[in-house]
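User: Modeling request: complex.
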Amino acid sequence: MDIEILETIPNENNKRDYEVEITAPEFTCLCPDKRDQPDFATITITYAPHKKLIELKSLKYYLGRYRNEEIYHEEATNRILEDLLKVLKPRYIKVVGDWNIRGGIKTVVKVEYQKNER
Amino acid sequence: MDIEILETIPNENNKRDYEVEITAPEFTCLCPDKRDQPDFATITITYAPHKKLIELKSLKYYLGRYRNEEIYHEEATNRILEDLLKVLKPRYIKVVGDWNIRGGIKTVVKVEYQKNER
Amino acid sequence: MDIEILETIPNENNKRDYEVEITAPEFTCLCPDKRDQPDFATITITYAPHKKLIELKSLKYYLGRYRNEEIYHEEATNRILEDLLKVLKPRYIKVVGDWNIRGGIKTVVKVEYQKNER
Amino acid sequence: MDIEILETIPNENNKRDYEVEITAPEFTCLCPDKRDQPDFATITITYAPHKKLIELKSLKYYLGRYRNEEIYHEEATNRILEDLLKVLKPRYIKVVGDWNIRGGIKTVVKVEYQKNER
Amino acid sequence: MDIEILETIPNENNKRDYEVEITAPEFTCLCPDKRDQPDFATITITYAPHKKLIELKSLKYYLGRYRNEEIYHEEATNRILEDLLKVLKPRYIKVVGDWNIRGGIKTVVKVEYQKNER
Amino acid sequence: MDIEILETIPNENNKRDYEVEITAPEFTCLCPDKRDQPDFATITITYAPHKKLIELKSLKYYLGRYRNEEIYHEEATNRILEDLLKVLKPRYIKVVGDWNIRGGIKTVVKVEYQKNER
Amino acid sequence: MDIEILETIPNENNKRDYEVEITAPEFTCLCPDKRDQPDFATITITYAPHKKLIELKSLKYYLGRYRNEEIYHEEATNRILEDLLKVLKPRYIKVVGDWNIRGGIKTVVKVEYQKNER
Amino acid sequence: MDIEILETIPNENNKRDYEVEITAPEFTCLCPDKRDQPDFATITITYAPHKKLIELKSLKYYLGRYRNEEIYHEEATNRILEDLLKVLKPRYIKVVGDWNIRGGIKTVVKVEYQKNER
Amino acid sequence: MDIEILETIPNENNKRDYEVEITAPEFTCLCPDKRDQPDFATITITYAPHKKLIELKSLKYYLGRYRNEEIYHEEATNRILEDLLKVLKPRYIKVVGDWNIRGGIKTVVKVEYQKNER
Amino acid sequence: MDIEILETIPNENNKRDYEVEITAPEFTCLCPDKRDQPDFATITITYAPHKKLIELKSLKYYLGRYRNEEIYHEEATNRILEDLLKVLKPRYIKVVGDWNIRGGIKTVVKVEYQKNER
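Assistant: Request completed. Predicted assembly structure:
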C-alpha cells in the first residue's frame, strides 16, 4: 500500500491531548484463500493527534485502495495502524477491524499503539 | 465567536463536586473545504461546575452562532471547550463533537480539561 | 420540601455493603423562568444502605411533591440528594436527574455522596 | 425557492412502475415565529418516476436552500412536494417531514400526490 | 376544559388532503380514584386538516391544563378528540393516549373521527 | 374462574366506536403437565367498548387468580376472552397470550370476537 | 421424516377460528452440498387449529429429527408444512424458515396453506 | 452483466405458490459520476418461484460481478430484476436496493414484477 | 426457605478461577404490604465456583419456592445470596434482583460477596 | 475432542500485543442429562496471539465436532479454552459460552487465561 496518498493537516490545538475517532463502515478487500471472494469490515481508528491531523478525504482514498487487494483480517488491521503511525506520529492510536461473518463466524481485530512519554 | 453571549447563573450547590451533562443534537456549521456545504453534529458538554452554571438558553444561542460559520470538526470542538472554560472556570469539562457521516466516514472529536487541584 | 413525608424501614441485612437502585421515570416540576411551564425528568437514586432503607411508597409521595414547585434542574437534583442523606444516612448515595429536551438541548445532572470511612 | 436548481436524469427503466425513496436527515430551516430560531427535520421523498429521475446532488443543493429561510412545518413539506411535482411529473409522490421536538411536542407532516391514471 | 385556549392558523395548502401527526410525550393528569396520584401518557394526534391548522404552542398550553385535573384514561382521550374536532373541523382526526403502566397493567386508548364525505 | 370479581364502569363515550388496548406483562399460571411448574405470559386485551369499560384494578385481581391454577396456553387465552365477553359485551375484543419460551419453543395464542352488526 | 412422532391434543375451543404461533429458534440441519456442514434457522409455524392442537413437546422432538439430515432450505420449510398439514388438518397454516447468513447471503422461505371454505 | 453465471435448481414444491426472500448486505459497485468512488447497498430479492429456484452460490458470484462496474442506483436495481426474471421466470419478484448514505442523503429503490395470471 | 432443595455437581475445572452467570427472568413472590399482590423480578446470579457448581434444575425449583411467599425486595435478594453462599462456598458471588415497576418506581438490588483470599 | 483438527497460521505482527475476538453464534452440543436433547450457545473467543493465529475454517470444523457430543455447559467452555491454549500458546485468552435459555434460566460461562509475563 502506497502511504503517500495519505495527507495531513496541522493540528492547531496540539497543546491539548485530545482524541479523534473515525469510523469507516464501507471497507472491503479480497480474501487470499477463497478465489478472490470479497471481505467486508468496519474500520474504526481512534487517535490522539500530536502535530498532525489526518485529512479525511485522503483517508477515504487510502482505505479504498484495499478494494482489490488480497489480505488477511489480522494483516489488514495491523497495516492500517502501521501506515497511520508513520504519517501522523500520534500520541496514541488504536485500529479496530470489525469483519463481517464468514462461515458462521465473526472476527474483530484490535491493534493499539501507546507513545511512551504520554 | 463572541463569548459575551454566554450567560451564567450562580452554582448554589458548589460545595459538592457534581456533574452536568448537556447534549445538543442540532449543531450545524459550514465545511471550509466544500463550497459552504453544511456539516451536522451532536455536541455533548460534560462539566463539573465550580462557582457558575451555564444558562441553557444562552448556550443555545451561542451554539446557534456556528450555523453560518466555516470551521473544521476538530477546531469547532476545541473552540467550544475553550470558550466554556473562560466563562465557567469549571473543575472539569469535556466536549464531544459527534459529526454526521461524510463520504462514508464518521468522525467523533473528544476534548477534555481537568483542573489540577481537583 | 418537607422531608418528614419520607419514611424508612430497618435494613435487616446491614452487615453487607450492598446497593439499591431506584428509578422514577415520572418526575415533573415547574420551570422557574418560563411562566410555570412544566419540566419532566427521570430521577435515578442509587444508595448503599446503612441502618435504614427508604420506604418506596413514601418516596413516591415525596417526589410527587415537586409537581407544582418551581425549581431549576441542578437545584432539584441536589436537593433530593440532601434530603435522602438526612433521612437515610447511607454509606453511599448518587442522584441522577435526566431531564427531557428543552429548546433542542438535553440536560443530565449527577450528584454523589461518599461516606469517608466506607 | 428557485426550482431551476433541481436537475433530472432520464429514467431508462420507465416501462416499469417502480419506486425510489430518498431520505434526507439533515434538513434545517428557520422558524417564522421565534426570532429566527432554527428548526430541524428529516425529509423523506418517495416517488414512482415516469420519464425523469431526480439528480441526487442537485436535490441536496435544493434542500440546502431552506437553511436560512423562515417557513412553517406544514408549508415546507407541501412546497417540497409541489416543486418536485413540477420538475419530475412522477406517477406518484409522497413527502414526509419529520420535525424535531419543540416545547415537548413532535410534528410529522405527510403530503401525497397520486396521478389519476396510475 | 376551556377550548378557547386552542388557537388555529389558516391551512394554506387545503386543496391537498394531507396529514399532520403531533406527539406529546409529556402529558400528565390526576387519577380520580387514587387520592390525586398523577397519571402520565403520551398523546398522539393525527389529523387531515381542512381550513385550519392547530397552532402548536396553544396546543401545548391546552394539554398542560390537564396537569391538575382528575380524569379517567378513556375520558381524557375522548375529550381531546372532541375539543380538537370543534376547533379544527378536520377531514379526519385520531387521538391515541398511551398511558404509563399502573399496577403491572398498561393501557392505550384510540379514538378516531372520519368525516363522511372524505 | 369466578367472573364476579370483574367490575365495570359505564362508557360515557359510547357513541364513538373506539378502542382500548390493555397489556398485562405479569401473567403467570401453572402447567398441567409438568408437576405444577409455572408458566409466564404477557396478556394483551384489545376491545371496542359498548356500554361498559373494564375497571382496571378488578382486571388485575381477575388475572391474578390464574396464579395457582393449572391450565394450557390455548385454554387460558380463550377463557379470558370468554369471561370478558360475558362481562363487557363489547363491539369487538381480541385476546393475545404471548407465552415465554419452553424447551426452546415460544408460543403466541390469538383469539378474536367480532360482533356481527359492527 | 417419520410424522408419527407428532402428537396432538383436542382443540376444546374449536368453535372460534383463532390462531397459534409457534417459534422454534433452535432448528438445525445439514447442507446437502457442503460436506455435511450444518445450517441453522428459526422456524415459525402459525396455524388456525380445527379439531386438533399440536402437542408442543412432540413438535420439539419432530424438529430435532432434522439435526443430522441433509436438506435444502426450501425443501425443509415445505416439508414441515406438509407434515403438519397431514397431522393437524388446520383451517390455515404458514411455515416460515428464517435461515442464518451463508456466504454473505441470508434466506427466508415462507410457505402458506389456506383451507378453501374458511 | 453476463447472466450465464446464474444457476438454478428445480423447484420440487412448485404446486404451492410460496415465497423466498434473499438478503445480500454486501453489495458494492462504482459510482459513474464520482471518479470511480465505490457505492454500497443491501440488495433484497423476494420471489415466488415457479419451475426454478436460484442457486445461492451462483447468485453470490453474480452479485460480486458488480464490484468494479460503474452503474447508477436505479439502473443496478432494475437490471438485477431483469436478469433474475429471464433466468427464473418466477410467479412474482421484487428487488429492493437499499443504498448507503451519500452527501447526507440515503436512497432506496424498489422494483417489482407480477405475472398476470398469478 | 429450605436450602436442602439446592443440589450441586462437582466443579471439574476448579483450578481455574472462572465465572458462571445465571439469569432467571421468571422470579415471582408476594408483596408483604399489599394484600398478597404479586411481585416480579429478574434474578441474576454471578459466581466464581470453587469445589461446587449449582445444578440448574434444582436452582429452578429453589427459586420457584418464593412464588407464594411474602418477602421484601431487599430481603429476597440478600437471602438468595446467603443460601447460595452456604451451599456453594464460591470464591465470589453476586446476586442482582431487578424488580418490575410498582407505582411508577423501579428497584434494582445488588448484593455481593468476595472471599478474602481470592 | 481431537485437537489435531485445529490449524494455525504464523502471526506476522507478533511484536505488537494485539487482540483477536472471534464470535461463533452457531454452537450446538447435546445435554448429558436429558435424553440427548440439544443445547445451543454462542461461543466468543478473545485472544492476544503470540507466534500463532488460529485458522478460521479449522476452528469452524473443531467447534462443529461438538454437535453430537454430550457435555455440560461449564465443561464445554473450559475444554475449548484448554484446547486453544495448547494449540496457540497465546499471551492471553478468554472463552465465553453464552447458552440459550433452558427451563426459564439462562447461563453464561466465562473462562480466562493470562500468561504471567504479559
